[in-house]
Sequence to fold (105 residues):
Amino acid sequence: MEKLFSYGTLRSKEIQMRLFNKLLTGTPDQLLGHKLKSLQIEEEFGMADYVVVVPTEAPSDPIHGVVFNISSTDLAKVDLFESNAYKRIQVTLKSGVVAWIYIEN
Fold:
């Protein structure tokens, strides 16, 4: 199993059903030393507003999210779902859990 930290759309039950055909269970956690930045991504029917993680100067700046346990197959689905505005890296969360996260590319 892989650990995935979600701070945005992947927490949506609708998105989970569409992407994985199931609901995920997760645990609240935080990523420190980062903040969310607005991002516009061109989609099929125009521009859409999203957020992306970027580092900050303050190591205590938190991003609240959820850690999900997912299969490597499901992680590959997320790679396809996320636009090329994001890249996937591993981070250590406040709890000490090491998880994948999508940040600004």
